[in-house]
Amino acid sequence: LLFYYSDLEQKLENYTKWKNEGGMWMIATTGFGCGINYSYVRDVIIYGCAYSFADFAQQSGRAGRDNGRSSITI
Prior knowledge:
The protein is α/β, with parallel strands linked by helices. It has three helices and four strands. The two termini are about 20 Å apart.
């Protein structure tokens, strides 16, 4: 379980682990969904309301970019 909300060095370390090692969950704020273009995201859980429809589209659009199995839970 990794977190993406601490200082920049910790964010980069956790992001690298998440991307390279696979099989990990990332707990993040909405800022994580706006710059990540990683094709192997399988599950996205959105807790609470998105700030806008565009934010919701960014967050939910992270899953299944490789056309593999994915799920969105709200």
